[in-house]
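Appendix C reproduces, verbatim, an entry submitted by the partner laboratory led by Prof. M.T., so that reviewers can inspect both the input and the predicted structure.
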Amino acid sequence: MTGFLRFSRLLGKGLCLSVIVLGMLPAIRSPRVQADRFQARRKHLLVRRVIDGDTILLLNGKLVRYIGIDAPEIDHCNGVAEAYAFEARRLNCRLIGNGGVFLEQDHQRHDRYGRLLAYVYNDEGLMINASLLQAGLAYLFPHRCNLRYYKLLLGRQQEAMDAKKGIWKFWSEPTGITYIGNLKSGRFHLPGCPMGKRVAPANRCMLRSAWDAFYRGLSPCRLCQPPMAVCKQQGRPGSRNMPRPPPVHSGKAGRPCIPNGNSK
């Protein structure tokens, strides 16, 4: 009899727990509820200007740099940019829309220029960082202090690479180069790069191509500037080397041009 009573009590507790869990499921599965809860926890901020694909200026005067991504550069002074830079900015503008944004910060809150580092969400609760990677209009740029959504962002980049979207569409790179990858810093280097030579054996990996490096979630070293994709915009060649952007687009007319400025 005692055993039966114990079983009945356990069964009753199990039924109560099942009811609680089932009651929670709609909230867990509903992206709209998740977005509402996310927005309720964070301050809604208005955007004054979209600088490029990975930087915005808030109405309060603060610059925000998107965590975990690097979009093609725009030279605002000369009105030129890397391939797909204006497309990245347009998508950034469209995702923000007429509303504002919500910011989520990681361990490192500011970069060396004083800009806020953040995962940026629009009014619908959509992470814009991930959306730009998924569209192939930015590449993953990890930092070991801000890795909260590293796997998510890497997955979005791999989806874009597999689908040959954006900057991955017309991929071309020099052959016969073996790059040095640093699994700790998340960077890859040319064979002769001083920083690459200092990579500890435990953190070192050898890569046959820049494509492989990007697919594994590594980004190019800013010192040695490993050769990157030779992107083609409407059949014309462009360069994707950092940090100085070559003139791939005409900023005023929005017309693609080749590096020497002469159209064919």
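The chain has two domains: 34-169+243-256, 173-228. Additional entries are available on request from the coordinating office.
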